[in-house]
Specification:
- By secondary structure, the chain is α/β, with parallel strands linked by helices.
- The protein folds into two domains: about 15-235 and about 510-535, no CATH class; about 245-495, Carbon-nitrogen hydrolase (Nitrilase/N-carbamoyl-D-aminoacid amidohydrolase), CATH 3.60.110.
- The protein is about 50% helix and about 10% strand.
- It has helices at about 10-35, 45-60, 65-85, 85-95, 100-125, 135-150, 170, 175-200, 205-240, 255-260, 265-275, 300-315, 415-420, 440-455, 500-535; strands at about 245-250, 285, 320-325, 335-345, 355, 400-405, 425-430, 460-465, 470, 475-480, 485-495.
- The strands form two sheets. The protein has a six-stranded mixed beta sheet with strand order 5-4-3-2-1-11.
- A hairpin with a 5-residue loop joins strand 9 (about 470) and strand 10.
- The two termini are about 40 Å apart.
Amino acid sequence: MKNNDSPPCHPNLNFMIRFMHRWRLQAAAFLAGMVAVGGLPPYGQQPLMILALTVLIVAAMQVSWKRGAWLGFFFGLGHHLLGFSWLLTSLNHYGGLWMGVALVVLSLLAATMAVYVALFAALLPQLARRPGLIPLAAPALWVITEWLRGHLFTGFPWNLVGYGWNNRPWIMQMADLGGVQLLSWFMVFPASVLALIWIRRFAVPTLSLGLILIAGSMLLASAYGLWRSDQLSALQHQDAWVQPLKVAMVQGNVEQSQKWDPKYREQGLIKYLGLSGNINEPIDLVVWPETAIAFFIQASPENMKRIGTLSQRLGAPILTGAPMADRNPDADKRWLFYNSMILLDAKGDLTRRYDKHHLVPFGEFIPFRGIMPSFIKKLTYGSEDFSRGPGPVPMPWEHGAIGALVCYETIFPDEVRELALANARWLINVTNDAWFGEAAKPQHLAMAQMRAVENRLPMIRVANTGISASFDQTGRELGRIEPNVAGTLIVHVPQGVGKSFFQITEPWWILLWVYMCITSWLMGRHRSQTEKTVA
């Protein structure tokens, strides 16, 4: 019986109740996206990632496609706000933006990346029209959205969920089949099965089959990884006569605020010369980080001589990052500037050089500079844009061609694959993560590690403030210099086989993921039409 004596609810309270009811799912999605960051390096807690993805899939399957898009957007927004939070150091501390403005810029980037998750959540119910199709559609659709994120608008494939397997060495070996995107599939697949179990309210047949599928997929991936690791180890022992490369990694730990200051440039060079001069054993190569030489070495013959003298004493060339400048061969003859790697020895030859081709928007160049407002400046030092190099071209060297990668070029699987296909024998990544926050360092390192496994080539990575580390072809760490310290480490780097299934098939995997999505959609549509006919 209705109690007419109860006081009416205040209109403002009614509004608040409706507001909270409407936005509680968005809030849950936002929180789940933040929790998912716990599955990425350096944390590597895969259950957190899988649980968060399960929440997103369950929520998206129970609402309209428009509501699902919003849920996906809020999931992606929370995920990328936390996952990219290290950018605040770049924007505020080194970029000179007020913290309020820096937060707005970070939010805009996170919102842009969240659009891809929104696309996933909006399309999933259309592709999986019945719950049983979720494990077929969801992992493939997620990988497609990650592929789009890595290719559209110059691409930014940072923090793909597949990197969450980096601390599971056996599962990580699957990358030589389908790259990090296959590992992303393996991250979303158990989440999609758990979502199916939840939607079917833990029905015993679904629960039993689902747990078998999850356990079976993980065992299959681990078995492949164990077999492949043993196979590569056996091949390496067969080629025991091939001596490992002895590489001296030099981490200068030069403060970013001083790096480009003319008053400190000499000190920076002296630091690298001194750290390298302390090497007292035979080596094959010395590697300095990105722009360790923070001036135009072409205009400084006396410094070229100092480096050449050191190279002669060590009996090894020095591979270093440095800015380079060339005259434009066109009619205007203006100067073109490059972010480069050069291999220097006693001869003082500058011909062995690689110019970075995949530049960082707003960091190394201003997109559409001709129409951009003049107040928009680069975040890094200097007013001039860097020019693009000719592409992923190996650098010749007597011990085998070097696959040179400057800074974040190492996060693009297809471009590193091109280097491997061009017969690069050693992947070497020089970077300067000093202008990022601390959280970016292990994330960036994990991507370099994955490139080694994908292409079955060793990766040598040297960073100004760390983390500097080397990996063999299985992703096994050979040694590291911890972040924010200066030091030199000599690592013995064995050669890799340099061949993988991923190199052959990389362009075709996206077709497989699309095929899975289309198959799921057709199966769901056929079932719907059959039910209508029966009715």
